[in-house]
Design brief:
Length: 239
């Protein structure tokens, strides 16, 4: 699996999303579409972006009973997206059902990635609200192993966790990592960040980059810098 940069298109509507994508004259970045845009515009915006030649990570984080998730995944798979996700908290049975639902008649399917614990959850809220009293690292590692056993392709995690996840789940288990900032950039609300180069060196398989690209004066140039730096970091990791 080629390492790649995914641009988080966190825009509220179709118009702004397509205006942003038209600022990439040469390349067709892999893009992430989240709940806000999908719920506002529906499947048609996914088809439109697909038709423009972009690969798509549809970040809807499904979490429901296995049968419902299986059927919903079959619908998403028909949109011809490249990556989708579920909450690992839905259990192994739900993840297995999601995987079954994704397989297309020709045998292909999008990559399926699990969310372990959201980065907005900390140890205190996990213990108080979810009655999970283990350390966060142990919970993330356990959820990743269950996702692996269920046959999923990888997890969303911090680049700081990528190495540990690969140790536990194997080098081929994908780590999709947000929390990326250029060294001189504003961290905004991200607390634990890595640069594209550091994330590459740490073993991330895909970096998810939003505002450092969407908010740049020249998004295409910022994207190219992410691609270059990430590849350089990955080469360092292999040297
Ligand atoms: O703008 P920024 O680079 O912070 O965007 C990161 C993207 O990754 C956003 O779409 C955000 O919702 C998503 N994300 C994240 N942290 C997680 C999971 C997803 O930042 N743990």
């Amino acid at each position: 699996m080629a390492k790649d940069v995914i641009v988080a298109c966190d825009f509220p509507d179709r118009e702004r999303t397509l205006a942003f994508l038209s600022r990439f004259p040469e390349e067709k970045p892999f893009v992430k579409i989240g709940m806000e845009l999908f719920y506002a515009e529906g499947p048609s915006v996914v088809r439109e972006i697909r038709e423009r030649g972009h690969r798509i990570f549809l970040d809807l984080k499904l979490h429901d009973i296995p049968n419902t998730v299986k059927k919903a995944m079959a619908v998403l798979s028909r949109l011809d997206v490249d990556m989708v996700n579920v909450h690992a908290a839905g259990t192994r049975a739900m993840m297995e059902a999601a995987l079954e639902g994704l397989v297309r008649p020709d045998g292909t399917r999008p990559l399926l990635i699990a969310v372990t614990q959201l980065t907005s959850t900390d140890r205190e809220s996990m213990a108080r609200d979810l009655l999970i009293r283990e350390p966060m690292e142990a919970v993330v590692a356990h959820y990743a192993s269950v996702a692996r056993e269920a046959g999923l392709d990888g997890v969303v995690c911090s680049p700081l966790e990528a190495g540990r996840i690969h140790e536990i789940c194997g080098a081929g288990f994908l780590t999709v990592t947000p929390g990326i900032r250029f060294p001189e950039g504003d961290r905004q609300d991200q607390k634990r960040v890595m640069s594209p180069e550091e994330a590459g060196a740490a073993g991330s398989d895909f970096i998810v980059v939003g505002r450092p690209v969407t908010g740049a004066a020249d998004p295409a140039e910022a994207y190219r810098r992410c691609v270059r730096d990430f590849a350089r970091g990955a080469e360092l990791a292999q040297a």
